[in-house]
Amino acid sequence: MTAIETLNRENGRQPSTETVISVRGLVKVFKDFWGRPKARAVDNVSFDVRRGEIFGLLGPNGSGKSTTIKMLLGLLHPTKGHIEVFGKSPRDVVTKSRIGYLPEESYLYRYLNCHETLDFFGNLFELPAAERQKRAEQLLEMVGLSQTRTRVVGEFSKGMQRRIGLAQALINDPDLVILDEPTAGLDPIGCREVKDLILALAKRGKTVILSSHLLADVEDLCDRVVIYYGGKIQADGTLKELLTERDSVRITTPPLSRETMQRVLEVIRKDVAEDKIHVDNPTQNLESYFLGVVEKARASAESTSGATSGHHVAAYLQSGGEAKAPSQADKMLERLASPQATVAPAASAQTAPAAPTVDATKLAALTQSQPAPPAASAPTTEPKVDLSKANEKLSGLLGGDKK
Amino acid sequence: MQQIWAIVCLTWKAALRFRLIWALAALLVICVAGLPLIIKDDGTARGLTQILMTYTLSAITAILGLATLWLSCGTLARDVEECQMQVVATKPIHRWQIWIGKWLGVMGMNAVLLALAGGTVYGLVLFRTSKLSERQREILHHEVLIGRASAKEEAQDLEPLVEETFRKDAPLRLTSDQMQDKKLVEVFTAQIRETFKAQRQIIRPGYMREWKIKVPAAQGFATNHIVMLRVKFMSTQISGGPQPYLTIWQIGKPESPNQVRGDKTLTTDTFHEFPIPASAIEEDGTLTIRLTNPSRNNVALLAPLEDGLEVLYRESGFAVNFARGLAIIFCWFGLLAALGLTAASFMSFSMAAFACIGLLIVVMSGGMLKEVVKDRTIFTSAHSEETKTETGWTKVKAIVDVVMVSIYAVLLQVIQAVEDYSPIESLSSGRSITWGQLAKAYGLMWFVLGGIISTIGIITFTRRELATAQGKV
Predict the structure, then answer these.
(1) Are A70 and B86 in contact (CB < 8 Å)?
(2) Residue B247 near residue B265 (C-beta atoms within 8 A)
(3) Tens digits of per-residue pLDDT, B128-184?
(4) E-only strand ranges, A51-158
(5) pLDDT tens, A204-227?
(6) Quick one: pLDDT at residue A191?
(7) Nearest alpha carbon to residue B340 among B63, B62, B66
């Protein structure tokens, strides 16, 4: 079980049985001017997405993910098949008031500034002026653009455009959030923040559809995925179903003494051949390491002219607004969401086999108390810095549970 | 409404931020202020004012008309091409609301620019008028800077007379075979019609022609109410140019104490205007006018039925009339904006702009359309020779003609209907654009033509797949 899965269970973020999206036999054939078939972008695709689920559409470029999303949004018409979103046609206008959409590029009006952009989209949801103002402020703060609110979007870097794009997708506090490559163009901190945000949304019972070809994003976040290739679904299921290697076992412990380690290996060798046993140190992933370094730098902070790190999930996106005593699940989330913990699944996934067999030298190294190398020590030697940041962020995230 | 208003504001912001509105405003002001410096007039204050208004209003109409087409095509087509529409269309807004919002946005911009340019023209005219002598100012306020309604003699339906004469004369002049020839019958009927028309137009030397004209609003006229007679006549004598002839006028009912008499030497082929007393109009609103062609002229005069004689009377002031004229120009822009948006509803920006401007050129070449409809063919006259020998190509031509001539006929009717509401000529000749005309113009151009065009555009846009274009952002 991955850390995220643990997190989900502990938070009670089990998707409900209520179907938000139902897709049956979906086919999309693009035609040329004369009506001749040009490309079969989506070919007989069927799936359901349930409420509270983070659902991943995974596949290489041109595999049909974005086309599927555009059909879910009513921007493209299916050649064949049936789509229901909240039990209605995807082109139903009332249904659209419950959807937030971030396209694969942030298709925003380049001549509007951040605040005007959010105000414009807020108007399309018929939000009152005061509410638009409030949400815009909170969202800009959340995506780290509060200091650039008067700059026009055309002047933004791609990453900043993604941030404002994400903000517009959340202006209506949507029940269904459709994110097409949400972390494309974002720096690692931005990626992490977006991922945290997605988790926070799901925790509130929001349904999230995530399309990406970045496997790490999907693995970190999704409850269930479908994998596209050539317009067809090649595999689908929960990450656990798809990723668990049932013919091997991993045991992780704090550093052990040489004697203990030898005893453990002795026991294992009785049942398992020598060349099947791998012993090594777990490593953190690069994202976690990078975040630690940046966090450290930020402690002696200098200002930046670009996007800043977002600090709080917009208050209206939190469930109750009032903080309450953290539940056991919340505590678990807090612990896991700290930089060391959030990378647990990725770290474990990236743990490479150290050597085909156990050699004595390596064993000696493993069993010694390790003086941590300077770079790698960042996340582990400064836990207070990381935790305070995580606490600050998660105090926003864990305002309560909608369900 | 909030959603439509958001789209309206977005369109304005685009026009402002891309500096389109500033560029157009500057261009309009330069045109309005600069044109009077280069145009030539006939030397009279009236001529200068008329030409000033005609040229400046035409320039404003042309510039803003093209800008309207360009902007309306761009505002929708570019949003689709650059994919912003993919984000907007996934919000809870109907496509028709987007379409209407864009139209209102373009029209809002037009309203501001037209008010600016129109206001400049109005100010310029008043400024130049203030520099004139008292006498010239009076002429201008009687003939140009005014909204004058028009009354003409009620047209007599000549067709019953034509038919009766045809029934009597045709058997005497045409053989039974000739009677079967449709073209010949048409020519014969036209000759009869022209004879009757000539009888009503020609005033022989020593003879008099009487008009009885109903002036509907005459009951409310004060004795000093401005009433003008507008006259144009020709002579039957072939000459190198306009010739002066003595004319004798009797205005008012014969034997009435209010009748006035007078003679005037007027030139042929020219419109003349002179004031007549409002008191000459009878209580029931009838104005009797008699024109005598003295024997000494020794030539017949011809007063055309359509525009030979017309009574013009003050209906409104210049400011109100000018505002109504601008309102009709604004109405044209509404139609153009609908056309541009409809084209952009299913075409790319470049294609939509090209198609609209192409259509505009066709519309402006109304003469060519008339020729085609009259000749019943879009091909050259050689076609008629070819038809004698039936070939595959002639059959194709015949089919093309049926389709194209029908399209041209509809287009021509539309153009003529729209041309009927041309305010520039009315404004420069001091003609009143009535509230009724204004309402009719809006009814025809916005609710009928605009309604049809908009419906096509909105339906097309609603059914369109918006995500096929690849973004450029």
Answers:
(1) yes
(2) yes
(3) 888 888 888 888 888 888 888 888 888 888 888 888 888 888 888 888 888 888 888
(4) 54-58, 80-85, 99-102
(5) 888 999 988 778 888 888 889 888
(6) 84
(7) B66
Domain boundaries, chain B: 2-146+325-463, 159-317
Nearest by CB to residue A75, choosing from B90, B94, B471, is B90
- Spatial distance between the Cα atoms of B95 and B74, rounded to a whole number of angstroms: 17
Strand partners, B260: B251
Asked if residue B50 lies in contact with residue B144, where contact means CB atoms within 8 angstroms, the answer is yes
Tokens 């058997």 identify what position?
Answer: B171
pLDDT tens digits along B259-300: 888 888 989 888 888 888 888 888 888 889 999 999 888 888
Chain B contacts to A (CB-CB under 8 A): 2-3, 5-6, 9-10, 13-14, 17-18, 82-84, 86-94, 465-468, 471, 473
Of B14, B18, B465, the CB nearest to A75: B465
Q: A190: buried, middle or exposed (CB in 10 Å: 19+, 13-18, 0-12)?
A: buried
Determine contact, residues A232/A81, Cβ cutoff 8 Å.
Answer: no
Q: What is the pLDDT of residues A249-275, one digit of tens each?
A: 888 888 888 899 889 888 888 888 888
Contact (CB<8Å) A70/B467? yes
Q: How far is A88 from chain B (nearest CA, A)?
A: 14
Q: Whole-angstrom Cα distance, residue B112 to residue A194?
A: 44
Q: Compute the mean pLDDT over every residue in chain B, rounded to the nearest whole number.
A: 85
The answer to whether B87 contacts A101, with C-beta atoms less than 8 Å apart, is yes
Q: What is the pLDDT of residues B65-99, one digit of tens each?
A: 999 999 999 999 999 998 999 999 999 999 999 99
Chain B residues closer than 8 Å to A77 by CB: 465
Q: Which among B9, B21, B90 is the top mutation candidate for probing chain A, defined by the most A β-carbons within 10 Å of its own β-carbon?
A: B90
Q: Which residues of A touch B93 (CB under 8 A)?
A: 93, 96, 124
CB B139 within 8 A of CB B166: no
Query: Tell me, what's the pLDDT at A341?
Result: 35
- Evaluate whether the domain defined by B159-317 bears CATH number 2.60.40: no
Residues of chain A with C-beta less than 8 angstroms from the C-beta of B473: 105-108, 110, 161
A8 touches chain B (CB under 8 A): no
How much is the average pLDDT of B205-234? 83
Considering only CB atoms, A93 lies closest to which of B13, B94, B467, namely: B94
Nearest Cα of chain B lies from the Cα of A225 at a distance, in angstroms, of: 24
Cα of B337 to nearest chain A Cα, Å: 22
Average pLDDT of the segment spanning B354-365: 83
Task: Judge whether A161 is closer than 8 Å to chain B, CB to CB.
Answer: yes
Quote the crossing angle between the two packed helices B318-344 and B349-364, to the nearest 10°.
130
* pLDDT of B38: 78
Rounded (to 5) percent helix, strand, coil in chain B: 60, 15, 25
Domains (range + CATH), chain A: 3-243 (3.40.50.300), 258-397 (no CATH)
Confidence (pLDDT) at B425? 84
pLDDT under 50: residue ranges of chain A:
1-11, 320-358, 366-403
Contact A49, A21 (CB under 8 A): yes
Percent of chain B with pLDDT over 70: 95
Q: How far is A30 from chain B (nearest CA, A)?
A: 9
